[in-house]
Every structure is written in structure tokens, then in C-alpha cells.
Amino acid sequence: MLFLPYPKTRREELYDRENELKELEEAISRGERLVLLLGMRRLGKSSLLNVALNELPNPSVKIDVRKTYSEYSSVNRYIIGKILLSSLSGKKLVEEVKSFLSRVRGITFSGMKVEITSKDFSITELLEALNEYGRERGRVVIAFDEAQYLRFGGATKYDGIIAYAMDNLENLTFILTGSEVGLLFDFLKFDNPEAPLFGRYHHDILLERFSKELSEEFLRRGFEEAGFSVREEEIEDAVEELDGIVGWLSLYGYIRATRKLNHEKALEEVLKEAKSVINTEISRLFAYSPRYRIILKAVALGYSRWSDIKDYLTLKLGYINDSNFSILIENLVKYGYVEKKEGRYTIPDPVLAKVFREI
Ligand SMILES: Nc1ncnc2c1ncn2[C@@H]1O[C@H](COP(=O)(O)OP(=O)(O)OP(=O)(O)O)[C@@H](O)[C@H]1O
Ligand SMILES: [Mg+2]
């Protein structure tokens, strides 16, 4: 179902995105070692990744690093190793990879499961084993969804590990997705000569929002599929309000079609849902500084110049020096909540802009 409000896994559920899917699949089949799948939140990165991995003839493992971090408050090598191994466990895969994994220190097999049982475990050794397996199977794809969270690895330095794998393990492809694009690049540090990934080639695929026409067509098709009739003006208005952000469009469609709500009520529900999502997402940021809230509000209200936003903040919360203010606003850009274009700041997501106006 097109409107199903969870990350999609099959091509039939994915609207458009043929080009991006083809680009991703071709990069993998060409043997590229590092692919980045970038784009704002709710544009369908996880969905695209799922569909690509499902269609791939090669074995693959995927780790949702954001979820892992929120569950364990860390992504050290034992945690990531455990998840990598559990995604191999239970499948016929475990039989297939067993002979390769037997070289990895610190892991033990029990039936169809394989577990980390000692501190000797090294993620590099596990990748070396998967590389050997990849030699046999053409390639193994390792995907880190929301890879910017790998920065919380503590003593486990994933940038160094990925750099080592890129240089030495030719049968592995890494796919990293990231919605907090600035944070992801801060973590990968391709431009820093001191950093392990300095100058490494990466194939970037950027997911954009849908055009107005594509968005309207998405809603028409989804409602048709759900057997729910809506007026053309409502479709146009929904796209006006939600823009080409497929996550919001599908949520609107899902709520409307399943709960039989009218247009206005469904839009209200989307906003309500956005508020609750945002509150959880952003509360961590607000805990660092209450100023983030006011800056977001200022930008959402239409202040777009650096100095106007700073004035608004000063009026509300008192003096802040220039460099501290710059750090705060640039952080919001890195998190993707704020966009900076030609020296002007905006909130790229109209639904979030509405939420921030009221915070
Ligand atoms: N091409 C598509 N066609 C239909 N629905 C889609 C498409 N892409 C995404 N969706 C829907 O939009 C929502 C968001 O998608 P998804 O979780 O894949 O995005 P994301 O970019 O990974 O978001 P986040 O940054 O929050 O992780 C989901 O409900 C999904 O079903
Ligand atoms: Mg995602």
C-alpha cells in the first residue's frame, strides 16, 4: 500500500524513485565501496535502502544506527558487532558464513545463533571474514542507516574502520544514509588531511522532495488504491501544506483513508503527529541549550538574516556573543532543521515550520 506509514521494503510500494534506485543498484554492482544516501528526514532514505537491499543478489546486512543508539546509548563495537551477527543468525546465511566467521576471535556458535563471547572481539576481523564471504558471493553490502550516530562509538572509531575496509576489503560495499547531513560529514571528515577517510571517493545520492505534480499524483494514486474519493482541490491544498515530503504526504493519506477523516481534520492530525515526533527528536537538543528553541521559532516566524535572528534571540533570552550564536545556528543547519542558502536561513520542512512557530 502506497500510504502505509512505515519504511517500505518492496518496489511496488515505492512511488517514483526509479532513478535513485537504479543509481544505487548500479553503484553496488560496479563494486563501489562507499555510497552515501543523503536527504532530509522523511524523504524515503530507509525505504529506498530497504528496497535496494531486498532486490540485490548479494548478501547484505543493515543496521539502524539511530535506533541502536537510542536503545543502548552507545554504538561501541560489541553492540554493532552483536547486531551484525544477529542479522546473520537464524538464516541459512549462518551456515554459509560459518566457515569464514570461525576465524573471528571472540565469537561462539550455538545452533543457528552466533554471539560475541569475549572482549577479544574485533569488528575489523568480522569485516575481514565478511570480505572473504563476499569474494565467494560477489560482494557483501553493509548498510548503516543514519550513520551519523556512528560518532558515538566511543573507543570504536568507525571512520578508521571504514577507511581500512575501503582500502583493503575489496568485496565490501558500505552504504551510509544520513538525514543530519552536516553531522554525517563532520563525522566522516573527508576534507581533513588528518582524518582516516581524507580524500576517499564516495558516491553520493541525494534524495530530493517530490515536485508539486509528482506529489499530487502520489496522493491521487494512493487514494485510488485505498478506494477513497477526495476532491481535486483537497489534493492541491494538501501538497501546498505538506510540500513534496513523502513521509507527510503518505501520513496524510493514510490517516484520511483509514480513519475516514475530512481534509482539514486529517491535516490537523498530521500536525499533531509531527509535534509528538518533533518533541521526542528535538528534546535532546533543547536540553543542551534553551536558545535552540527560540532560534527555531525566529526562523519559523520568517526571520532569515543572521543578525535578525540573533536580535530576536537577544530580545527573548538576553545577550549572546556572535561566535556562540553562530555555533548554535550552524548546529541547527547540521541537524537539518534549518537550511542556509545565500546567507538566508529557512526551515525547509513546512510542517516543522508550523510546529516551531508555536514552540
Ligand atoms: N517512494 C515512496 N513511495 C511511497 N511512500 C514512501 C516513499 N518513500 C518514503 N515513503 C513513506 O514515507 C515515510 C518516510 O519514509 P522513510 O522512513 O523511508 O524515510 P527516511 O528518509 O528514512 O526518514 P527518516 O529520516 O525519518 O529516517 C514512510 O512512511 C514511507 O512509507
Ligand atoms: Mg530513515
TrEMBL record:
Record-linked SUPFAM superfamilies: P-loop containing nucleoside triphosphate hydrolases, Winged helix' DNA-binding domain
Residues covered by the ATPase domain: 15-249
All copies of domain MCM C-terminal, residue ranges: 289-345
GO molecular function annotations of the record: ATP binding
Protein name from the UniProt record: Uncharacterized protein
